[in-house]
């Protein structure tokens, strides 16, 4: 049966890839994937890095409404990947999902670019500092439609592009099994490099040349990203979609519920296995049985009612294989760890809203005639992130490897933990910097002059931006590694969607916090922690410290989750050499975590 399964997979792959004998995937595909990533991120980041300025200066939205619009968009953009992952894993495959989603995104970008060029699609310029007409319903409708198309496009790109790149390395090849964690570092580095260009060159053009050109260039970059990606079609490994992963998870849950009254078998080897029906979803090997969540194992207990005959495929709503049961266990185990990243995103989201507003009030002049655009302040986040990735990849891993014995230096759980601690420090620092900024504003009589520059250097804001960049290099890459590594192989787009779902919820939590704080901190004299028009009269530092406190609680929660976490069971690979390597890595990871 196992030989038959192998032959079946081989025939399917041959039909899917074509008759060419040249091996697919590998390092040769990276220029196409990274070129796509650079162009796509240049487009997306250049489009949204300075969007708070566009909403407040061009559409004249109040600060809190503009901030919530952006965090809602970011949240929706990170929630739609669940839909994109379903499409990719079920029937379309990652390549076509990425391609069509990119086209949808470009339509949205083109629409908003047109609205920035045609004056009638925006409200008239303000007359003085106070007389501003807010964008009307029709003008806001164009904005929301463009953002919605962008969110739908993100839904297809985000869960698939990271997994598609990692798919190019064959886990059954001993020479490629350790390359995926290098790929994640390379992916994030390219993304960061594109961010760097976007928040400097493009933001400068938007602020000093015009929004038509400033939004038009990212739109062109998005078009180039599609060309670059499609150009590598013949070189890619295209993994065959194996059907809806959500259906399989539900089938296991239903069959376990139906057999809930059965007594658990004493020997796990008596549980149902079928390599033939599991072959399309376990090309790298089957997941082995784990003792945790044993109530789900009942889905794999064979009873007389199942009426199994030799070679017969069972009713999967009544009986499931051990591999499919372990898929559901793996997804459940990932949930608490994945959820721990939510508040880090909540803290990080403030860089594009209130931290940017802080930057707008500071002295950003490098020379008498040139000043750094406020939207470019995130360049310090990006530089810190890129520097940390280089240091981590070139130095820290080599040092840590001597102590842990792990090829990746430290486990992704340790990496995430370091990121959490640094993020706490970043938001704590941001609160103290805001106190300093307001103190200078009071000293110079600028408390009631929100549009006047406070004579304090933008350099004071660099620590909070940079610390967030260091935290992202540890936490976000570790988070990606965790989801990709611990997810069942047939659910990796879905796993990437879970990563983005955590980001989505983090942005929605930011919206909720801003709304609640703005509402409940309001007093009868008009004062507010987060005022709409005058940050100098607010208590932004309290808001930062509230997020800091929440992150401390979250860190305790994460440490508890990491302590009880059980790694995905060792896979039984077709190659003994690969299985031995995977088992050694698995055992070292567990031992390292326990020792910590």
Automatic annotation (TrEMBL):
Protein's cellular compartments: Membrane
Keyword annotations of the record: Membrane, Transmembrane, Transmembrane helix
Chain positions covered by the region annotation Disordered: 1-22
One MF annotation (Gene Ontology) recorded for this entry: transmembrane transporter activity
Main location: membrane
Transmembrane domains' residue ranges: 95-121, 141-165, 186-205, 211-236, 370-392, 412-433, 498-522, 542-560
Domain of life: Eukaryota
GO cellular component: membrane
Membrane-topology annotation of the record: Multi-pass membrane protein
Comp. bias intervals (Basic and acidic residues): 1-16
Family as reported in the entry's similarity comment: Belongs to the major facilitator superfamily. Proton-dependent oligopeptide transporter (POT/PTR) (TC 2.A.17) family.
UniProt name for this protein: Major facilitator superfamily (MFS) profile domain-containing protein
Species this chain originates from: Brassica campestris
